Amino acid sequence: MTERGDRKAEGRPQARAFPERLSQAMGERGLKQVDLLRMAAERGEKLGKSQLSQYVSGKTLPRRDSLGLLADLLGVDAGWLAGAPEGGGAVTREQAPAAPADTPARTAEGGTATASAARTHEEAIMEGTHMPQRQFKKSSKLDNVLYDIRGPVLDEAYRMEDQGVHVLKLNIGNPAPFGFRTPDEVVKDMQDQLTECEGYSNSRGLFSARKAIMQYDQLKGIPNVDVEDIYTGNGASELIQLAMNAFMNEGDEILVPSPDYPLWTACATLAGGTAVHYVCDEKADWYPDIEDIRSKVTPRTKGIVVINPNNPTGALYPREVLEEIVEVARENQLVIFADEIYDRLVMDGKRHVSIASLAPDLFCITFNGLSKSHMVAGYRIGWMSLSGNKRIAKDLIDGINMLSNMRLCSNVPAQSIVQTCLGGIQRGQELLVPGGRIYEQREYVYERLSNMEGVTVTKPEAAFYIFPRLDPERFHITDDDQFALDLLKDKHVLVTAGKGFNWETPGYFRIVYLPRKHTLHDAMDKIEDFLSYYRQ
Ligand code: PLP
């Protein structure tokens, strides 16, 4: 189903009433999420940041206690807040309708579950009975999992689009909608092989695909990779999740960059482990801060994630920085997880160095794929390569094999084009040099942002993201999401707030500079104008 289709499957009006009323009450009182969190803390009440953000986005409906607390903090009637019809009887915190626990707004089928907390006589009538209905909660494993790139601000953008508003989307790194076409040769080769791709393949993938990946790894100097060490996946995403599931135990820690591509933190958390964030330093071209990495290592640390080239900063790490990371991994016997999905999208004549090539004595897993380099994000094809010292990871590899077998195989037609894409001349390189679209669009966006009052920005060297900073003295940004929402509402421009990348300092946001220059021109004008008056 399309994103829009999924969203439209969202359900019944009464479950929507709660987030609307919550926003209304907060708006009327000029309260932001941080204010509610602070007020709850001052009262010694428990109200979590992600819990509140899920209420505001309408993803979760609160149970009785939380509903009562919110109503108290906002000075509104709990029944009204829960969605009772206007003018309904007053309900105190004690009387607030009961729900067994926080209730997800959506069921697995995509419909909206009825929240007990929001049960009104309206629902009782609809059901024709006063019998309590069983409620289904999302798994508590998801409590601390966030993926805000497709989060509440995007939901608001869709709501606006439903009302006929044209939104300029600078939020998702998806090349196809911006006119980046898959090379004809690739489409043709997939077409020709389609009838041969009807069955499951080997669970790791087709031999021809894995051989091509192995040869690619050889060219990048990644040591000790056999065909059997390569696993294809439905995008690198599937394999990130698979690897984290195979690797992490409860209590284990893994070092993950901040800012990060948030799937890593989400998957490490979902797998039961803890993502401990190390800082990438804006003042040092967003390179990882080695001292910070060292300071975050504990006896529970098992691995380190390195995203190079980086999303969201567009940084490309030099060999010396990678060598230092390898040294920390070596000293502490860590597994290196290298996300290199942007390694073929490097500009300014620079060369990408695979961190695994510097660590033959360590166990490394390198992730890559065709989504970005060959503009086939929708085909879903990525891979991971196990390299280096595989002897120390025999048991882990058994686990990886088991999980790989359990998902049978990845999308076979998409595997069939790997050889075409990785062999021969690398198409797409012309986009990355002067005159090429990605290069020129980067130059333009960087130039425009650099000249905006109160904005500082580091020039990205790879991928198609830029991560500007708003001067705190000038803009006083305390709530990133609010900034993204206000920009969306005022100017119809959609960006992703820094918080969505596990970046704690407010006032940062990511722009995807894939749209054509005239669209970027429009977006930059709007952002510039917005920043001329916006303050928090
Ligand atoms: N890694 C990074 C750093 C990304 O930015 C993305 C997608 O944006 C992925 C992995 C996932 O890519 P895919 O699942 O399309 O291969």
Please describe what this structure looks like.
By secondary structure, the chain is of the alpha/beta class. It contains 21 helices and 17 strands. The chain has helices at 3-8, 13-28, 33-42, 49-57, 64-74, 78-82, 121-127, 152-162, 184-193, 207-219, 235-247, 263-270, 290-296, 319-331, 394-406, 412-415, 418-422, 437-450, 472-475, 480-491, 517-533, and strands at 60-61, 103-104, 168-169, 230-233, 253-258, 274-281, 287-288, 301-307, 335-339, 363-369, 382-388, 455-456, 465-466, 469-470, 493-494, 496-497, 509-512. The strands form 5 sheets. It has an 8-stranded mixed beta sheet with strand order 4-11-10-9-8-5-6-7. It has a 3-stranded antiparallel beta sheet with strand order 13-17-16. It has a two-stranded antiparallel sheet with strand order 1-2. The protein is globular, with a radius of gyration of 24 Å. The two termini are 38 Å apart. Mean pLDDT is 87; it is low at 1-10 and 88-119. The protein binds pyridoxal-5'-phosphate (PLP).
What is the overall shape? Answer: globular
> How much helix, percentage-wise, in residues?
25-40%
How many alpha or pi helices? 21
Number of strands: 17
Strand content: 5-15%
- Gap between N and C termini, in Å? 38 Å
| Low-confidence runs of at least 5 consecutive residues | 1-10, 88-119
What value does the Rg take, in angstroms? 24 Å
Q: Which secondary-structure class do the elements indicate?
A: alpha/beta
Q: If strands are numbered along the chain, what order do they take across the biggest sheet?
A: 4-11-10-9-8-5-6-7
Average predicted local confidence, pLDDT: 87
Bound chemical compounds: pyridoxal-5'-phosphate
Question: Biggest sheet, in brief?
Answer: 8 strands, mixed
